[in-house]
Amino acid sequence: MKNIQMVDLHGQYLKIKPEIDSAIQQVIASSAFIKGEDVRRFQDELSDYMEGAHVVACGNGTDALQVAMMALDLKPGDEIITTPFTFIATVEVIRLLGLKPVLVDVREDTFNLDPGLVKGAVTERTRGIVPVHLFGQCAHMGPLLGIARERDLFVIEDTAQALGADYISEDGRRQKAGTLGTIGTTSFFPSKNLGCYGDGGAIFTRDALLADKLKALVNHGMKTRYYYDYVGVNSRLDTLQAAILRVKLRSLEHYHAARQKAAAFYDKALAGLEGVVTPVRSGFTTHVYHQYTLRVPASSRDGLREHLRQQGVPSMVYYPVPLHLQRAYEDLGYRKGDLPVSERLSGEVISLPMHTELDEEQQQLICERIIEYFK
């Protein structure tokens, strides 16, 4: 049996090696490394996948979030409601723009923003909500969009971990994560479900005028060369990455299916194991399993990780310290106990290997080692 990895990018590459190598060579031959034809084609193809939403490619997922907020003409001190249980980029860009993050606790079952708590956090200074579709499934967008309509707020969907997931409305309508709010953002970091071989990101919107502004903002604020309509940034997806992403986009639904199959194996093998809570699937969203994250007793989590490590099984903790307790954000005034669900989850979560190349022999070993620890 081959070594177990958290993410097997090389194994995935080998299956599409001829197409990837050819795409790279074509870009090198063209020498159009910046704003080459593959960038335009990738944006068009991803737009088709995203059911017609405008797509603006950019340098990375963090830039995507920052540029999305820059496009909305926010003012210093404006409040943005978001989650403390996520990667730092979501809150980082809020602070970098001089805005105020208002952190609201998450649901214990799905790890996503609790809409009931969001409603109670809205003030006269609130301008927007940034739900993060964590680990591969959507936050409950129906209630969040309802709050936004009532209070005239924007919604930026952080879709870095859930590109391709569908949100299912009460009437049965399906919409792609990232296309429901004012703007959606995503990351093409290599380990993402759709990942490139470096950094990359994209911004989505159904508003054509907003899309035009976003296109200018990622290119120094230019619409016409050397004429600057906005204070922008330099955040472009390079042509090599776009060419790689075009190849991988064709396999994205296959990648999702492989992850869902692996998740189903874990679910069955670990069902009923005392002390272990497998991921909850919300009825209003599909799940594309960027991560497969268990909850275990806090007193057992680190011991389980060490037991697995000794057996050659990697694991990860996403995230060991919620954002409101991070040193860099002490000035926000949060204290331990303020957001108890996020704090509890940070001590309980453990993510297992999850990628497109997992085989059942590997998964059987992983599950046997977990069961062994708890028995």
Question: Which shape, going by the Cα principal axes?
Answer: globular
The assigned structural class equals alpha/beta
Number of domains: 2
Classify the helix fraction into a percent range: 25-40%
The number of distinct β-strands equals 13
Can you tell me the CATH superfamily of the largest domain? Type I PLP-dependent aspartate aminotransferase-like (Major domain)
Output the CATH class name of the largest domain.
Alpha Beta
| Cα Rg | 21 Å
What do we call the CATH topology of the largest domain?
Aspartate Aminotransferase, domain 2
Please state the second-level CATH architecture of the largest domain: 3-Layer(aba) Sandwich
Order of helices and strands: HHHEHEHEHEHEEEEEHEEHHEHHEH
Cα separation of the termini = 25 Å
> Helix count?
13
How much of the sequence lies in strands comes to 5-15%
Low-confidence stretches: none
Task: Explain what the structure shows.
The protein folds into two domains: 241 residues, Type I PLP-dependent aspartate aminotransferase-like (Major domain) (Aspartate Aminotransferase, domain 2, 3-Layer(aba) Sandwich); 123 residues, Aspartate Aminotransferase, domain 1 (Alpha-Beta Complex), CATH 3.90.1150.10. Strand 6 and strand 7 form a beta hairpin. It has 13 helices and 13 strands. The relative contact order is 0.17. Helix 3 runs parallel beside helix 9, helix 4 packs parallel to helix 5 and helix 10 packs parallel to helix 13. The chain has a seven-stranded mixed beta sheet with strand order 1-9-8-5-4-2-3, with helices on both faces. Strands 6-7 form a two-stranded antiparallel ribbon. A two-stranded antiparallel sheet has the order 10-11. The protein is an alpha/beta fold. The protein is globular and about 65 Å long. 39% of the residues lie in helices and 14% in strands. It starts with 8 loop residues before the first helix and ends with a helix.
